[in-house]
Amino acid sequence: MSFTKQDIYKALETITAPGEGKSLVENENIKNVVAFGNEVIVDVVIGNPSLQAKKKVEVEIMKAIHEHVDQKIDVKVNVKVEVPTKENPNQIRGKEIPNIKNIIAIASGKGGVGKSTITSNTAISLAKMGFKVGVLDADVYGPSQHLMFDVEKERPLSVKVEGRSKMKPVENYGVKLLSLGFFTNPDQAVIWRGPMASKALNQLIFDADWGELDFLLIDLPPGTGDVHLSIVQAVPINGAVVVSTPQNIALADAKKGVAMFQQESINVPVLGIVENMAYFTPAELPDNKYYIFGQNGAKNLAEDIDTAFLGEIPLVQSIREAGDVGHPVALQKGTPLEKAFEDITKEMVSQLLKRNANLPPTEVVRITTMSGCSTK
Ligand SMILES: Nc1ncnc2c1ncn2[C@@H]1O[C@H](COP(=O)(O)OP(=O)(O)OP(=O)(O)O)[C@@H](O)[C@H]1O
Ligand SMILES: [Mg+2]
Question: Which parts of the sequence bind ATP (predicted)?
């Protein structure tokens, strides 16, 4: 059998990179090709972490080589997942965050629907997939991530980076964390006004030593008021995830949440909707599902407003307990809940990749007048 590396590259040129309209070779997905005897090893990098996407590219590569070069070649494909960096989505108005590739806000309209739970578990799932992840708890009313990550007693250290003092995020479960909770006394109600909140958050993003991050997840406070606009204004968000329960009142608020991001002046793409507390399953009757807040509400809403449905999480006592003791369920290996969060996380990343491929970088929002709140 005789063939060259060039023959292999030619065969790979026939495969189109997902969402790019270019070939895998042209799009620089192919990192290396080794050919010896009747064996070929192809190293390929893709952006989508789902098993399906990995399998698809593997099969396409094998097929192309067998069809265009030789049926008998023994093809091995090494697939690596990396978040694409080529367009640096955070390079906005001169404010660059070179180390943070993607910022995702987790929002809801109604309070208590599970934003913080979804944020912590999704962050852990991302970390387990090998991504570098940070969480910024921006809940000005009641920060909770320091509790969920069991780092309540810790405080971010001050470190010198290139001669400047920066805050070093606290780390646990492979996730870096900064929370407004580190800076407030739990016994004192802190009234954060819009501009104050946006200033604090700005510092937590730009004056912190996050290091390299593939994802920074921002846990937003509930609601869609002034303070939210200030936060969204302060931070270059690439996409938002909206959490809702299937209950009508939560759905109405989720719709407002989506509308807030879609306002012309804000224009942050909504990556999708997560249905939390989708049904109740008692531990002793794991096959029984009780739709106590209604059925498929968030799924239907996603369809109605033409937004992706990212998946559902049931109402399970262990989710609450695990959050309360600072050891989120996504850490429980081999459980259906670990898998449920993993599936949602993969869907979120898929949607983000679509967004990064199809839309220009999100502009930092500029709103000049807002009731009771100056945002300069
Ligand atoms: N799927 C679930 N099953 C059981 N308990 C849950 C689930 N999701 C969230 N909880 C619990 O419900 C409570 C509220 O959840 P969480 O704090 O995540 O909501 P939130 O939307 O962040 O609230 P807030 O609006 O106050 O920030 C917590 O005690 C949490 O442990
Ligand atoms: Mg919360």
Answer: 109-116
